Amino acid sequence: MITKLGFALALVACSKATPSGSAAGSGGVAPAPASASASANPLSCDNIPKADFQALISDPITKVEGSTIGACNAMVGTKLGIAALIYKDNEVPFEPGPLSHMLSGVGDKAYWNDGDAGITGPSLHVLAGKTQCQIRSPAPPKSTLTGSADAYVQKLIVLCKDMLAAQ
């Protein structure tokens, strides 16, 4: 599912990269475009445990690197496995929909959405002050999601908390 602003969280678990704004290949979504307020310096992901990314995807992660759009990208070889994005100063609307699952105890406000069957897994949106963390997960078998999404969403929450703490 792509938000009404036309971006998707950069979680591509497909066999080839897709250009921004295009339809994603099998098993992924199109990467997020660069933010208008993105800095030229990549986000530091040194304090984000690689294990927290690995808990979300089935393929072995080879490295986690920051990007200039405010993301920590977990790479599977040369391909993006999963990314967690940070938006500051309310640059992206925080708009839960009618089918969103509201959460408490995470940031100031939080919700998660079900994924699109066979395309994406659940997505998590956490607002803490004026900073928002967003993660969209790949669909199984690229993700570790099995059965109910509740346990998987708890893994997404751990990663978002790490991302927010690193700011």
What would the keywords be for this entry?
167 residues, alpha+beta, seven-stranded antiparallel sheet, 2 helices, 13% helix, 27% strand, disordered N terminus
State Rg.
Answer: 14 Å
Please state the structural category: alpha+beta
Order of helices and strands: HEEEEEEEH
Give, in spatial order, the strands making up the sheet with the most strands.
1-2-3-7-6-5-4
Q: How many beta-strand segments? A: 7
Quaternary structure? single chain
Number of helices: 2
So what's the overall shape?
globular
Q: Strand portion, in percent?
A: 25-35%
| Overall average residue pLDDT | 78
Q: How would you portray this structure in words?
A:
A hairpin with a 2-residue loop joins strand 6 and strand 7. This protein has a 7-stranded antiparallel sheet. It starts with 49 loop residues before the first helix and ends with a helix. The chain is 13% helix and 27% strand. It has 167 residues and is of the alpha+beta class.
